[in-house]
Design a protein that fits this description.
heterodimer, A: alpha+beta, Beta-Lactamase, 3 domains, seven-stranded antiparallel β-sheet, 33% helix, globular, B: alpha+beta, four-stranded antiparallel β-sheet, three-stranded antiparallel β-sheet, flat
Chain lengths: 761, 139
């Protein structure tokens, strides 16, 4: 409970003195320092501190401030490189990390030229927590050389697998700023290995729950605490080494920033950090102000909660009024009380910031001020603003959508502007399409983590070009997909197909989205190792198109069980195809069990040689397919990205399959015929709606969210549960039954029916 | 004055009308939902995202499930251009995706035109310059 909570005084009226006494008592006797709504619901910049006011009004030279900004950037890049080159986590090796500097008040001012801005942006919450609760607590305190660790996303994080090391920079007894290094560590002791447990049914299934606490004093890790953390996770080596790595990165950062103070003076550092934020915020307000007033909307739907299929609404309505911009998520799927895909509001906001910083205004410095002027509306107890009790271990499902969809909405405001900050683009693919793994390695070490394939989402088509293949993670521009041979040395699995672009899995359009790649893995050298995946979109595509472009396909997971593929390679190598499509369609290996399922696979052990296959996704397409240049269609065919059949059926190009020479007149005729066919089959909008729109969702669909207007009632029709309709201001979380219990009940009913049939026979 | 809103839509600010940028077809009042001026087709999503895995063997095939996915295609009634696609749930009311304040737009457009010699730049003129690139070949 927080001291800001309203107290029921039972009707008694307290005098001002009594109220003050009560407040003081509660402040001194707080039972538990939980997530503080005063911190966690506020993404605005702090007010200028007296020190900042003084530094900004003393007439410092702007050119020297710019030099300081460059020095800070260099220091942050150095810290980033240190972590990337010495970090143990796969995420650290391939760029899923960041180094950042915060003002003394805790506002995130600057990250290195590389690095994941979302990781840093969420860190202003724990910095503020440390300032509010530990700075003046006599049992904790904050001193030069202290460092604080943190991972619990309820206190500010994307998800619990990311760990941050936060250190104050003291100068002459005063905190000048804060520094942090964050890595997607992976393993965190959750119910499933690897740090992103899809089966977490409560927050206590999520593993380490580090609210910000002091883990280092006098620049040294406290080994008793490190030991406790090592004891709480599957990979004690990872926990120890990366705590050291991050600590030494922030210590190096501290040295560089002290050098800045020595050369330029403390005021220059303070003023530069604050001025960067104020300038960014002013520029964002100016850019909002140059947009036309109005409202732009999108409805998207999440088709899986990683335990079962649902249709959870994820809507976004953006309204611009002068220099105000409001992101409205009302109408979203209600909180799923015992499913892992809820996302904290603070996490959502930082992903929205990152979307603007990557896809809308990439020229802006990616700091907290990019989003601080934006207002956010939600239904409380919804998927994007759940209670503190909700599990959030796989928050990536709604958060990746926040990293992909807003640019699609903003495009409809920005297309009319007479200038561009970047090209208008269709959405990046937005699912964590990678293998999470865990178990015993060939070196007899226990581990759990994920593959860097997550960093290869396809980019959306652009107004002036196709999307890039396997471009980057939706959450950052600079992360890499890694060298898998290095992972194979450490881990007991082999990549049979590594990052192979595949045919026909395209967001079609005038400018197509960039493609994803196939990943086929199998276990070797361990009988205690397995995989998990957390990818939605096997029934409903997750990245849509823009301006007439189509979205990405629906991505499933394939596996071949009851097989040892290595033995088949020895005995019948011709049966082993390095393609998911060929393997699954041909079913050529005798005795093997072939399974296609959604790509939200809970952790399962894999036998040696059993095969698991997923596909990284494509970005959305931009524009009408009939406007794609025939030579671009042919290039896709030549590069084996597109089959000749789909070149004809989707793009209506007529060509010679042997030479790929286009028959231009025939293509023009085919496209004209298709335009005529569209006009013939299309129905006027009002007539279409009168016949097609339903007053409520099909009762057979597990629909969760508002139906139609997003400020209206929220419907919850959970699988196997009871349908309820909730007022928008009274949305409550939904409990779901165990899908295995439902399956058992189905099978028991079948058995009972068969027994009855048998008895009657 | 006319202003482009999307790849295929523009608004005649004087007449306050939506227009198709490909064939100039009038698509209705600018203060209304532009979709009301278009034709709609409920496309089976499996026709676009065709099964890559044999649907006689498996239910998950890379094609969307039509029970979970409706794909609405919006065509210009004049030229048949695919102006917009909408992925939604079967029966869900189509979203009014663009609802701009026309008075605000008029003010902004006038200001932008004044800053650009009296006319608004075409969106295509804002594209990045395309430079010739090295073509890598293995043959």
């Amino acid at each position: 409970m927080n001291v800001e909570s309203k107290l029921d005084t039972g009707g008694a009226t307290l005098s001002a003195q009594e109220q003050q006494l009560l407040n003081e008592f509660l402040a001194e006797n707080q039972l538990f320092y939980g997530p503080d709504p005063e911190i966690m619901r506020n993404h605005s910049l702090s007010a200028r501190s007296p020190g900042e006011e003084r530094a900004l009004t003393m007439g410092l030279d702007p050119n020297r401030m710019n030099l300081v900004r460059g020095r800070i950037g260099s220091a942050l890049e150095e810290a980033f490189t240190m972590v990337e080159q010495t970090g143990v986590a796969p995420g650290a090796k391939w760029g899923d990390l960041v180094s950042a500097v915060f003002t003394a008040s805790g506002d995130m001012s600057q990250i290195g030229p590389h690095g994941i801005a979302v990781f840093a942006s969420v860190c202003h919450y724990p910095v503020r927590f440390v300032r509010k609760y530990w700075l003046n607590d006599p049992s904790v305190g904050v001193r030069d050389g202290d460092a604080f660790i943190h991972n619990d996303s309820r206190f500010g994080n994307i998800h619990n697998t990311d760990q941050s090391m936060i250190m104050p920079l003291y100068h002459e007894g005063e905190i000048v700023c804060w520094m942090a290094a964050t890595i997607h560590e992976g393993e965190c002791g959750a119910i499933e290995p690897g740090g992103m447990p899809s089966i977490a049914e409560s927050k206590f299934d999520e593993g380490l729950k580090m609210c910000p606490f002091k883990c280092a004093e006098n620049f040294q890790l406290k080994r008793d605490l490190v030991n406790f953390l090592q004891n709480s996770v599957r990979d004690p080596k990872l926990q120890l080494f990366d705590m050291k790595v991050k600590l030494h990165a922030v210590i190096r950062l501290r040295e560089r920033l002290l050098a800045v103070i020595e050369e330029f003076g403390k005021e220059y550092l303070i003023a530069t950090l604050r001025q960067t934020l104020e300038d960014t915020e002013a520029e964002v307000r100016r850019r909002i102000g140059e947009m036309p007033d109005g409202t732009v909307r999108i409805n998207t739907f999440i088709d899986n909660d990683l335990r079962e299929h649902i249709l959870g609404k994820w809507p976004l309505e953006v309204t611009v009024e002068g220099e105000r911009m409001i992101f409205d998520f009302r109408g979203a799927c209600p909180e799923l009380r015992n499913r892992s895909i809820n996302a904290n509001l603070a996490s959502l906001k930082t992903c929205l910031m990152s979307n603007l910083a990557i896809y809308v205004w990439p020229d802006l410095p990616p700091n907290q001020a990019v989003f601080s002027p934006v207002e956010v509306l939600t239904n409380r107890n919804s998927l994007v603003d759940p209670s503190d009790e909700a599990p959030v271990a796989m928050s990536l499902i709604p958060l990746f959508r926040a990293l992909g969809a807003p640019a699609q909405v903003m495009a409809k405001f920005l297309y009319c502007l007479p200038k561009r900050y970047t090209a208008i683009n269709a959405p990046h693919y937005n699912q964590p399409a990678t293998f999470v793994y865990g178990g015993l390695t060939q070196h007899l070490e226990v581990t759990g983590n994920f593959c860097a394939d997550i960093n290869g989402n396809g980019a959306g088509g652009r107004e002036d070009n196709d999307g890039e293949h396997a471009m980057s993670p939706v959450f950052g521009a600079f992360a890499d997909t890694g060298e898998f041979e290095l992972a194979e040395e450490e881990l007991p699995f082999v990549r049979l197909v590594a990052q192979q672009l595949t045919k026909d899995r395209i967001g079609f359009g005038k400018h197509r989205g960039g493609l994803g790649y196939e990943q086929i893995v199998t276990v070797k050298g361990s009988n205690m190792f397995g995989f998990m995946t957390g990818q939605c979109g096997a029934k409903h595509p997750s990245a849509y198109g823009l301006f007439g472009g189509y979205g990405c396909p629906a991505y499933p997971l394939a596996k071949i069980k009851d097989v040892n593929i290595f033995e088949v390679m020895d005995s019948n190598p011709e049966l082993v195809k390095f393609s998911m499509i060929d393997l699954m369609n041909e079913q050529a290996i005798p005795g093997a069990r072939y399974v296609m399922q959604d790509a939200g696979m809970n952790f399962e052990l894999a036998g040696e040689g059993e095969v698991y296959m997923i596909c990284q996704g494509a970005g959305g397409g931009y524009g009408d397919v009939l406007e794609r240049l025939p030579e671009d269609v042919m290039r896709d065919v030549e590069e084996a990205l597109l089959s000749p059949r789909l070149a004809r059926e989707i793009y209506f190009v007529t060509f010679d399959e042997q030479t790929l020479v286009v028959d231009a007149p025939a293509t023009t005729a085919a496209r004209a015929a298709e335009r005529a066919a569209r006009k013939a089959r299309g129905i006027p909008f009002d007539a279409f709606c009168a016949a097609w729109v339903k007053p409520e969702p099909d009762p057979a669909l597990p629909y969760l969210g508002a139906w139609g207007p997003n400020d209206g009632p929220v419907i919850a029709n959970p699988p196997g549960g009871v349908r309820v309709v909730m007022a928008p201001d009274a949305v409550d979380g939904v409990m779901l039954s165990n899908p295995k219990d439902r399956r058992i009940a189905e099978l028991e009913a079948e058995v009972a029916a068969l027994k009855a049939k048998l008895a009657a026979a | 004055m006319k202003i482009c809103i999307t790849e295929y839509l523009r608004i005649d600010l004087d007449a306050e009308r939506w227009e198709c940028r490909r064939c100039d077809r009038d698509l209705g009042a600018a203060r209304d939902n532009y979709k009301r001026g278009l034709l709609v087709h409920d496309r089976d999503p499996r026709e676009i995202h065709q099964p890559l895995i044999d649907p006689t063997k498996y239910s998950y095939t890379f094609a969307p499930d039509p029970a979970y996915t409706a794909l609405l295609e919006y065509y210009c009634p004049g030229c048949g251009t695919l102006v917009e696609t909408e992925y939604t749930v079967p029966g869900h009311p189509p979203v009014r995706d663009i609802e701009l304040d026309i008075d605000s737009l008029k003010e902004k457009a006038a200001q932008w035109a004044a800053e650009h010699g009296g006319t608004l730049p075409e969106p295509e003129s804002l594209h990045r310059p395309a430079h010739a690139r090295h073509q890598h070949k293995h043959s």
